[in-house]
Design goal:
With about 300 residues, the chain is α/β, with parallel strands linked by helices. The protein is about 40% helix and about 15% strand. The protein is built from 12 helices and 10 strands. An 8-stranded mixed beta sheet has the order 8-7-6-5-2-1-9-10, with helices on one face. Strands 3-4 form a two-stranded antiparallel sheet. Helix 2 (about 50-65) runs parallel beside helix 3 (about 85-95), helix 9 packs across helix 11 and helix 11 packs across helix 12. The site of iron/sulfur cluster has 13 residues, from helix 10.
Length: about 300
């Protein structure tokens, strides 16, 4: 049937038959990480390191359940290996299985040498701000992006109180580098007390989103559709998203690990999830946005 044939069949089942079928599978391949970012809770807890057999089985099971888009996350997925198998082997295996799109969420400190995938590289602000959160990595990341084996590399930032003020400077700095295909973002999504201390909420959140949208309107390569911008701003969108699953070594979650934490979910700031919710709501701007992303 081929990639586009499968996508069309999935669209018909989803939009005509209104079936909620799996499509995007996320894999927390390891929680091991070579960095120590203050806002990250999923680093080096020792709870999430897949064995190679477990990873291969989880990929096959996800494909059998109907998933066709895949992302690896962590910890730092690029440092994962087990039994002589590394992440590159898993990407090749997932392609052989038939996954259409493969993304790797990485901190960019390891060379981007795995082919046949897209990279989402975290850059947490302008050079100084990034260095204040991820010390000693800014130049290394840019070097790895410059030498990446694919042009499909996106920058990703998590907005918090520590970097929201540098938004415009950050977007202009990253765009001027001409290294990234686009800029995606999240709003810090965490326990209410963490968001109260480090996050952006209420009218501040609305103002930040308006600033992001203004940059998008000026032509900066921000991955954000009008539908997702409006939904993030009003915080009105359908969640959790049953078409998304997140697999860890011991469990598969619907949408993400916080699916049962209502307080977190109510203020979800994962822009990619909002985009998917708008695609599923058949919003033309979100459908157009994703068509630009997939190969
Ligand atoms: S916080 Fe809720 S809506 Fe957001 S990704 Fe997690 S489960 Fe989905």
């Amino acid at each position: 049937m081929g990639r586009w044939g499968e996508r069309l069949a999935y669209a018909c089942k989803t939009f005509i038959l209104h079936r909620e079928l799996p499509y995007l599978f996320g894999m927390v391949i390891t929680d091991r990480c070579n960095l120590n970012c203050f806002y990250c809770e999923s680093k080096n807890s020792g709870s999430y390191h897949f064995t190679s057999d477990g990873a291969i089985q989880a990929l096959s099971d996800a494909y059998q359940r109907g998933h066709r888009s895949l992302y690896f996350t962590g910890g730092e997925p690029m440092i994962w290996s087990d039994g002589g198998i590394n992440l590159g082997d898993l990407v090749r295996h997932s392609r052989k299985l038939g996954f259409h799109d493969v993304f790797i969420f990485t901190n960019g400190t390891v060379p981007l040498a795995i082919r046949d995938c897209n990279y989402i590289v975290t850059v947490d602000g302008t050079r100084d701000i990034h260095e204040s959160i991820r010390k000693g990595t800014y130049d290394l990341i840019l070097e790895n992006v410059r030498n990446a084996v694919t042009p499909d590399v996106f920058a990703s930032i998590t907005f918090s109180r520590h970097n929201a003020h540098c938004l415009e400077e950050f977007v202009k700095e990253i765009t001027a580098l001409n290294l990234f295909r686009g800029i995606s973002f999240n709003l810090l999504t965490h326990w209410p007390e963490m968001v109260a201390k480090h996050g952006i909420s209420g009218s501040e959140r609305v103002r930040l989103l308006d600033r992001i949208w203004a940059l998008k309107q000026q032509g900066y390569p921000i991955v954000l559709s009008r539908a997702a911008y409006r939904s993030l701003r009003s915080n009105e969108w359908k969640r959790p998203i049953p078409q998304i699953e997140l697999g860890t070594r011991d469990k598969v979650f619907t949408c993400c690990r916080d699916v049962d934490n209502k307080e977190i979910c109510e203020n979800c700031g994962y822009a990619n999830c909002v985009e998917i919710s708008q695609i599923l709501a058949l919003r033309p701007s979100a459908i157009f946005q994703v068509m630009k992303m997939v190969n």
